[in-house]
Amino acid sequence: MPAATAGATGMLGGFGPDAGAYGGVPVFGPTTATMVPNMGGWFSGPTYMDLTSLAGIYSTGAFIAPLINTTTTAGQAAANQSGTIADGIASFDQVRSLQLGPSRYVHTAPLHTAAGATVGTYDFVFDINFANKQAGGGGSKISGHSTMIDGDNAFDFALPQKPYEGAVGGAQFHFAAGELTDSIGDSSHQASAVVDVSLRNAGGTIAAFAHHEVTITGDPDIASNVVFGNGDTGTRTAQ
User: Fold this and answer.
1) Gap between the Cα atoms of 234 and 34, Å rounded
2) How does pLDDT run across 155-188, given as a tens digit for each residue?
3) Could you tell me the pTM of the whole model?
4) CATH architecture of residue range(s) 89-238
5) Is residue 82 classed as helix, strand or coil in its secondary structure?
6) Domain residue extents for the chain
7) Pairing of strands 237-238, 134-135
8) How far apart are CA 189 and CA 159, in angstroms?
9) Contact (CB, 8 A) for 11 and 26
């Protein structure tokens, strides 16, 4: 079979390193590319090769594949974004992925006895700095009043800062009684508290709101002076 004429210029002469043409048919390869018969004429064979080897083929796949890969990657990223953010307790990995600054969760909830009677209310405030990977501190606190605490005495417990840079598992923060001090309670019967906070995903948003549970003991000498509260904050707000 005759080979393409060296140095010939074809319709797509710039497509390959040695692209040329034979009889008006583009040759995608070196000027020595083998030609094969096609419908009574000559047709360029597999490109940039001779027919004894498949090495070095220039094909549409070489150009389409990157487009397919790019589309697939974008699709996977979109699927991961929507598919992996299930409602419920956020993971610390998810919380660390948030590129946000200081934010705040707030809620007002009733206090009740173990039997369910309402005996007061409290405000819950929880600050978090997503950029610094620090939760609590700032204006974080629980404050309120209860008839079970020294005759409707007020209480105010600041929630100290807790880093979560290396934390694993669910994004939950525990504040033990020894960490919290009632700043305005009666010194002779000062209340104590235990507070648990978990960050919750909702509607595809990581850490959209916080769930809180509190146990406050009014007088350690009186077993019945224990009240409970819990609830969900509204959506976090930037500070």
Assistant:
1) 72
2) 899 999 999 999 999 999 999 998 998 887 555 5
3) 0.64
4) Beta Barrel (2.40)
5) helix
6) 20-79, 89-238
7) unpaired
8) 20
9) yes
